[in-house]
Amino acid sequence: MKILLITEQRDGKLSKGSFETLAAAQQIAQQTKGTLLGVVMGKGVASLADELAGFQLDEVLLVEHDLLEKYTPDGFTLALRQVIESAKPDLILLPHTYQVRDFAPKLAASLGKGMIGDCIAYRHENGKLIFVRQMFQGRTAADVVFAGDAPWIATFQAGAFRADLAAKHASGKAPVKPVNVDLKPEQIRTKPLELFREAKQAVDLTQAPILISIGRGIKAPENIPMAEKLAKAMGGEICASRPICDEGWLPMDRQIGSSGQTVAPKLYFALGISGAIQHVVGMKGSRTIAAINKDQNAPIFEVADYGIVGDLFEIVPAIVEELEKAK
Amino acid sequence: MKQVPAKDAPLAIIEGAVWIRESDIGFETNEPDGYALEEALRLKEKHGGEVVAISMGPERSKQTIKEALAKGADRGIHVADNEFHKLDPLNSARSLAAAIKNENFDLILTGLQSDDQGFGQTGVLLAELLGRPHATIIMAIEVVDGRMKLKRELEAGWFQWVELPLPAVLSIQSGINKPRYATLKGIMAAKKKEIATVDRASLGMPDSPTQRVERIYVPQKTKKTEFITGQPKEIAAKLIEKLKHEARVL
Question: What is the pTM of this model?
Answer without folding.
Answer: 0.88
